[in-house]
Amino acid sequence: MFKTRQNLLSVLRPLCILLRITGFALFSQTTIKNDSKISYFTVFNCVTYIFHIVYIGYAVVNTATKFTSAPDTLRLVYALVFLVNAFALIGTNIIWDKYKNDKFLQLLKQFYNFDKKLQRNNIFLDYEKLRSRSAAVLIIEATIYAYFNTDTAYQFWKMGIKPTTIFLDFIYYGGLHAMQVTMTGKCFTLFAIIENIFDRLSFTMKTDEASPDMVRNIRHLYHETYELVVQVNEVIAFQLVVPFCVTFIMVVFHIYYQIVDSSLQESVTVLVWLSTILLKIVVVIVQIHGALTSVKSYLILKCVFVPILWLVG
To answer: What is the percentage of the chain residues whose pLDDT exceeds 70?
Structure first.
């Protein structure tokens, strides 16, 4: 059923490609499977730093323009909400992420090494399923955002806005949406792996002979999985909670703004964008809930098999 030649790198590949392209990962995928550290001053990383600095500078200019050109209080409040949302994303994905990049690399190394340990114990994850689900979520969300950005640029062109401004805004909004996709990718992929690990541990306990050595071994693997969960919480919790909170506020205000502004009431593109944001939040929450459900399922089995270990000695 499972191919031993596969490993967790195949599952992490879609996420790693996205993180590398956007510059949110300062390391390549091959770094995960060896003992090498991040080379912070490679040509690619230096170009990434410059681009991110320019990007932050344009974000400041864009936000200041929104404030100074706001014709009424409603537009001024919208500019404020947009500022909080944009810089929450920038702060956590560009600034904070640089600080946590090494810890994120170490986290991926832990996942990779733990997968090798599972394989040595004849426990294999659903690599194809995990990779396909992760890639599908990333591609669908990125495609919808690309449609929104393209349609927004087209609307700006019809309004007579300068082509240079349209291009810069397209890059700016595309960057913000790329940060949204990477957040989804990190949370969905890592928690899907955790859920699958607990499922495989539970499956092994249900199907294999309940010997003391097997139960003892599974218990050790469970505790190591728990340590992975703790590390995931430490590394990505801040990047998850802060942007999700401000994004939800942005969505709520945008719904009100669309109701008030007659020019947006018939905009299908904005409705698709709002629906995507809300659906993305639901998908991440459901995936985290699935991982927690797998943990509870394992704990029930543990209550059944641990007494066997105690009785047998």
So the answer is: 88
